[in-house]
Queue: 2 jobs
Job 1
Amino acid sequence: MYSLSEAQALIQNHIDNIKFPEEPPELYDPVKYILSIGGKRIRPALVLLACDMFAGSVDSALHPATAIEIFHNFTLVHDDIMDKSELRRGKETVHIKWDNNIGILSGDVMSILASRFLNNSPGAVLRSVHDIFTTTAVQVCEGQQLDMNFEKRITVTEDEYIRMIELKTAVLIAASLKIGGMLGGASERDANELYHFGKALGIAFQLQDDLLDTYGNPKLFGKKPGMDIVDNKKTMLLIKALEDADEIQKKQLLQWLEAEDFDPEEKVKDVIQIFDSLNIREKIESRINELYETALEHLTKLNRPDDRKTELFAFAAYLMKREQ
Amino acid sequence: MYSLSEAQALIQNHIDNIKFPEEPPELYDPVKYILSIGGKRIRPALVLLACDMFAGSVDSALHPATAIEIFHNFTLVHDDIMDKSELRRGKETVHIKWDNNIGILSGDVMSILASRFLNNSPGAVLRSVHDIFTTTAVQVCEGQQLDMNFEKRITVTEDEYIRMIELKTAVLIAASLKIGGMLGGASERDANELYHFGKALGIAFQLQDDLLDTYGNPKLFGKKPGMDIVDNKKTMLLIKALEDADEIQKKQLLQWLEAEDFDPEEKVKDVIQIFDSLNIREKIESRINELYETALEHLTKLNRPDDRKTELFAFAAYLMKREQ
């Protein structure tokens, strides 16, 4: 059995050795660039781990895992254009380093290359793997559209937000596990347990990301805390706070949301104070724990010996404890 | 055997009956819009005709044909963003009717939906069909990149231009025919003859498009003639003229290319005069005829009875005579 870090190293090595065409460089240089500036390779590593769990080998999963990572990076390139983001993994985004057209077209070719890599799946599961992948990829687009829609709205409900992060983030983690399982020969039932394990974990991960931005230890989290608050980002914290706030708290929050000239530190401090008075952190932690438990239940139900599940249990624990 | 117009009607009906999701409307309305504003459905009709030629039925080809048409429309949506085009088929382009982000994301989802429709191909050819499709789709992106590169260059060689239109236009026509043939059960050899038939015809078609813009009968061609000249578009006419021109003619052409304030009618008249003195029209017509002959040779070599080839011969004649 491979460990998570072994699977990450394996897929990293595989990606490093892809021979992309040289011409035209305007098309392929951005592809090589975005794949070279890092990323934890979590999704493709999960394809490998899930496959390994059933097959005791990951050979059939290397190309499909690469497909998932290329697809994920395609979404980053296009999302960065749409969100006008200038930095990704601490480096210039593709559309900043080159331009918007190059970002659009190199993203397009990555989306197709993903499908091309996926087409190396074994014949017995080829159609199902393409089906899960395209269904998931469509959902990721739906999630990005919802995310953009929410930016323009004042209020978003908790359920709407959960559905958005499910589509934008969780289903691709879920599909990575399911596809890995199927490549390893998992039954449909087991493949679906893997999917639901991944989906619950993916939502929990995104909620935890929201929490960490505000409450994370900056030394461990690696980002300046409170940026979501400064940027008025519609995180689960803000959504839940607006939902639970009394009239006075709601007015205070809306004032901060509308403020144009402000001291960022004061805004962060003040908004956190409102969050704290509403026990937002505890409420979201409890939601995360529920999702974590749900994920573990699905993994427990999986029809494999316990020693085959070790790496995925370890992965779930690692995801949930990344702050500490 | 279906005729071209019957195949077009069949695929149109199939596209009209696709049930796209309703939510989020910002994502799917543009997809429905671009598919509803027309287009001749040539590529998917060719999938059907090529399939029909071998199988005597087009049932297995309807979904893959739809895939090709959705993919083609995805490239139009993204190309229009990159080229800043405001009109497509006489209607507002997606990024003008909505905005750039919606154009990017709805294009993305169409590219994935194309792959999804393609995944309904019969098991025996599923992997090959995906392979041809993704190879071709990657080439279409390469062609678009070359086209954008050429816009920024002063000189482009004839060979470079032919390679660009081969990638941007011809290979998708070629792949439509090849995929159709394979769905109908064609041998690899016959499928490749179809491919080369389509590729030669596709290049000829694009060259003819260049000719028609300048020399077409405006009543029949449906566009104001000479627009390519006004816009300094790098067509085969301009490329060949710059190649064949003597020093004086070249200087005249370059003056027109650099002119900022000019009378469009005078520019068109003057440039056509240079083209005419260099016999550009005849030279390109002769190239088109060579390509047309090459296309017909491939169709002739195809291992099918003549009465099975009638529709594709008719299609080739139709494409080559669309001005008259």
Job 2
Amino acid sequence: MRHELILNNDNKLIFLILDGVGDIPNPQFSYTTPLEAAKKPNIDSLAREKGILGRIIPVDIGITPGSGPGHLSLFGYDPLEHEIGRGVLEVLGLNMDLQDGDLAARANFCTIRDNIVVDRRAGRIPTEETVRICEKISSAIPEIEGVKLLIKPGKSHRFAVIFRGKNLSEHLTDADPHKDHLPVVFSEPKDDKAIFASHIVNTFIEKVAVLLKGEKAANGVLLRGFSAKPAIPSFSDNYGMKALAIATYPMYRGIAKVLGMDVKDETKDYQEMLKALRDNYDSYQFFFLHIKETDLAGEDGNFPQKVAAIETVDPMIPEIYSLNPQVLVITGDHSTPCPMKGHSWHPVPLLLVTKTGERDGMAFHEKNCVTGSIGTIYSKQLMPLVLAHGLRLDKYGA
Amino acid sequence: MRHELILNNDNKLIFLILDGVGDIPNPQFSYTTPLEAAKKPNIDSLAREKGILGRIIPVDIGITPGSGPGHLSLFGYDPLEHEIGRGVLEVLGLNMDLQDGDLAARANFCTIRDNIVVDRRAGRIPTEETVRICEKISSAIPEIEGVKLLIKPGKSHRFAVIFRGKNLSEHLTDADPHKDHLPVVFSEPKDDKAIFASHIVNTFIEKVAVLLKGEKAANGVLLRGFSAKPAIPSFSDNYGMKALAIATYPMYRGIAKVLGMDVKDETKDYQEMLKALRDNYDSYQFFFLHIKETDLAGEDGNFPQKVAAIETVDPMIPEIYSLNPQVLVITGDHSTPCPMKGHSWHPVPLLLVTKTGERDGMAFHEKNCVTGSIGTIYSKQLMPLVLAHGLRLDKYGA
């Protein structure tokens, strides 16, 4: 984006992101996709009357994106240039308060015998056990040489750690052998600036090993994905809009926070999301609404559940569109096809509801999106297109 | 373009550029576009029988181009790399003779009271007034310190200036407060090399102020868009073709001249354009025919007028194609959708009439172009494609 083309006005843009919505023709369901099979009268009538269709490729052809690159590209950032580390995504997903300078890591409990990691998942101990042991560690090791420790349990054997202090470089190797039956591994600094951070991390690992000597399964920890909050240009600065993120899942609020968006906390359901949108509509120009349920159904490989997730979103549309945004975008951060039970590389269906009067006159699903007038573009090209439709971009050249 | 692939032969390529031809489905006219609604039997039968379709994106997705970038990209130049300044476009549009080393500026008369610009447009004085005052300035200030002054009136309060002399750098800020009720602004040099140019420009502004003291409305001038004829590689050198531009509007002849094309002066109407094409057909390989009326209708938001403009061009086609060019290209430099009354970012419909025997079998309009076999490409990629169809590009690699 060329900053000098950005226009300032109060035109509203709404991104309704159905996580993992993209899918592929499903042999078990007459080769339809969930978007095609779902009854979604509100979305489809908007699509037919005021909508143009297309597809977005999150990272590149054939590349399956994680949630980080999927969302960065939606918001106009080059996902190959900017990165949100795994440790950062993990602490954001656990709703931990990540601050500038923090060093974040994904972690899990493991079983160690005679300095050999015999089970990297500590027999997949139940979540309650992880909660108990995390509390034990937090009480016993609140800090190491002035570096504060923040620990939060996840599901099963997983947890996350934030090291809060000065000079904590993220240039560290994983403290994880990555395979069972290999010796314990400590974190190595990748450069001289990371020597202090590796010392703190490794001291933590040693202290925990002493503390957990009596535990049967979980008597050690593995840490990986060391990362700091990335230095990414702010969304608002880039586009000259105040932006609000409304999401039920913490990870997506976290990603929005990393991009400098304001974040509406604690929306438990779609009704609360709509209320947050309504209540804040006058104070912002850009709104990011994140729906997680489509992705969960795709991950489960559950076609009827994904259809139901889409049909549950559809009744929100009249209220959203009654706010009269200049552009309403409905798309996903990536595809999560039910037959694949996971993220995929497939282009993501895209619907733009605009005020130019143009329309493709088609319902919103993958097959129509192939022939939509937007064509197939990269996700990072979506923001300029939406800004254009939002009348927020000046002419280039005389 | 890779020069080493260029082949030399006498195959003819014709670009028929309908300025701003691209449009969007129009709710007022049953969601048709002007190209779709126009009766253009000659274009459509050529399209169906020998045509392939696609779309071109002038600068980038979401970016609305001016005439400069629109045409530069059509001729295979990267519009982000090469630029034709605003001052240059203005003097070209007024048919002034721009030479190497000239410094060009857009200008207008304004009203100044107590060193405050109270009206940047001098009450939009009539064109006759501007003609009279421009003559007054030309007589009184023919040169400043050896720098010759060329002044030409435009419409209403607008005019253009060429400063002709040595060491006239274009690195100058606008001598324009850009808003009413702000103090008079002089031009500042952006670097040391532009000190002399800023001195000349500001001396001109001061001399004019003294000269126009008695005028009621137009007692000052604002100058902006300082620019020199850009150093752009010649079209003929790039592609190994002699090129002729035929256009009724001076700005497009001017752009062609900047690219080193020969220019046919004074074609008043389409019959004269056809005659110029016929008379010069043997002496050139590339022909750029520019039609302005489609853009004018789009700018006016006048759908029937745009339909009529297309229908007026259609009868030219049999005579143009009877010359038997290797490739006939019909497209635009950008879209000017009637509902938007101005240039837009929308991809531009593209028709290539070729001699390969291939065809898409469809009439020429935006909707068919979405599914045409060329696909959606960047305008700067059009020249290589046309050269290929013109059998003017060698194989790359063994």
